[in-house]
Specification:
By secondary structure, the chain is mainly α. The protein has helices spanning 2-5, 7-38, 52-77, 84-114, 122-143, 147-161, 164-174, 194-236. It starts with a helix and ends in a 23-residue tail after the last helix.
């Protein structure tokens, strides 16, 4: 497993995988959107129900991405994984983006259904807290000059914020909220008609692959950025000018965390 964690090996593997992931992502999202536009209107919500094809995948990914960041935080603090802090840093803006989409689409749905853009519902409030945590982590990475200290501080804050995930998940069951309960993954089976369910699942899968694609690209950019910084520091110290090709040369297992 550690051999795949080598930054150079990671760069080579992702360069081969990204074209396939990108193509599959486009196909799935296109099929999901086609099914969403062709799906029938809900008998209560009307055409407004189609907002869920964006809202539900975004809500799912807002939590999944934070879970990925929590795993990366453990990799940074416990196992000193060479790519852990790069993976965590790369995931935060993507997670913030999906959480923002979740909040906006939820408000667009809430206005005609609830008669207001926003209520301090337990589910909505906890998702807003998640969005603020994402922004705080992004700011933390930007404000601490020492990248090693920033990685450790962000890892600790990420793990502390994990307590918000079960609150988001079970808030509808724990408190009397306006937000509807689970309608897809439930013990009694989905309550959504098949004509709406398959486009929703397709959009969720396509959105998940979109995250994987964007995350891998962002990690690659972070690795190359750090290597460029090291090269610039060596030039400033008077060392011979390295070639650009050295950016992809194999390096030691700690190359991704050297700044």
């Amino acid at each position: 497993m550690w051999s795949f964690a080598n930054p150079s090996v990671f760069l080579r593997l992702t360069s081969r995988a990204l074209p396939w992931l990108s193509g599959l992502t486009v196909v799935l999202i296109a099929v999901g959107l086609y099914g969403a536009f062709r799906s029938p209107a809900d008998y209560q919500q009307g055409e407004t129900v189609k907002i869920m094809y964006l809202h539900v995948p975004a809500a799912w990914l807002s939590m999944l991405i934070y879970g990925v960041m929590a795993a990366a935080a453990l990799g940074t603090l416990v196992w000193r994984h060479p790519l852990a802090d790069a993976a965590q840093k790369a995931a935060a803006p993507i997670g913030a983006g999906f959480t923002f989409i979740c909040l906006v689409t939820g408000s667009l749905w809430g206005k005609p259904m609830w008669g207001t853009w926003w209520v301090w519902d337990a589910r909505l409030t906890s998702v807003l807290v998640l969005f603020l945590i994402y922004l705080g982590l992004i700011a933390l990475w930007q404000t601490i000059d020492d990248a090693g200290k920033a990685a450790r501080a962000a890892a600790v804050l990420t793990l502390v914020g994990v307590v918000n995930l079960p609150i988001i998940k079970f808030s509808v069951d724990w408190w009397n909220t306006l937000h509807q309960p689970a309608s897809v993954f439930r013990i009694g089976g989905p309550t959504i008609d098949a004509s709406m369910l398959w486009p929703l699942l397709t959009m969720a899968l396509g959105s998940t692959l979109l995250f994987v694609t964007l995350h891998l690209m962002a990690i690659r950019n972070e690795i190359l950025r750090r290597r460029l910084r090291r090269m610039a520091l060596r030039l400033a110290m008077g060392e011979p000018k390295p070639s650009v090709a050295r950016l992809l040369e194999p390096t030691g297992p700690d190359a991704a965390v050297q700044h």
